[in-house]
Amino acid sequence: MAPSADPIPAVPALREEFPPPTHPDRLHVTRSSKAFGSGAYSLIDLPAGALFAKITTATPGKKAYTSVQTGVDTHIELNSDLVFCNHSCAPTLVFDMARMEVRVVDDRPLKKGDALTFFYPSTEWDMDQSFQCTCGANECRGWIAGAKDMTSAVLDEYWLNPHIAGLLNERK
């Protein structure tokens, strides 16, 4: 008797599953297989200083490359598509952790298609992972390690969260 030839079951293609978008009316996320290559882009036009989004899905976290510092010793995980907002030395957004909101920078409007970025040292005193900035802005600051490692003169050019301003005052 010949052995039965059971067919080998098909293996489904591996597919990374993503949760549904958290701000589908505000931003589009582009994902990349390249490390730190993903980003968020605006789906709307807003005037300078306008509210972009409230931070409503955050949970307490520890200092990590994905967290945002909210106070001298506190961090949160955003748990939303806002985590895809990258750093820029010429940011389009402000992450105001005292108000738990994201606003358009005060000096220019946000246009549909703009990359959604913020200045990481505006929230981070001493970053979990420093990096060489490649934002391409004329005012690019190069090595980004947090506000602790930047001069007051440079930081005076940016909107800063109260906890960062307080730590700067202590440093003086």
From TrEMBL:
Signal peptide (UniProt feature, chain positions): none
Region (Disordered) location = 1-25
Kindly state which keywords UniProt assigns to this record, in alphabetical order: Methyltransferase, Transferase
Q: Which residue ranges traverse the bilayer? A: none
- Is-annotated flag, keyword Transferase? yes
Which InterPro entries does this one have? Answer: Flavunoidine_N-MTase, Post-SET_dom, SET_dom_sf
According to UniProt, the name of this protein is Post-SET domain-containing protein
Where does this protein come from, organism-wise?
Answer: Penicillium angulare
